[in-house]
Amino acid sequence: MLRLQGASHVQVTAHIREEYAKRSISGLAVTVRGGTALVRPAAVRVVVTGPVALLRQLQPADVQPYVSLVEEGSSPQSLKVAAELASGFGAASVLEIEPAQVTVRPQTPRSHP
Question: Most buried among 28, 44, 49, 53, by the most CB within 10 A?
Answer without folding.
Answer: 44
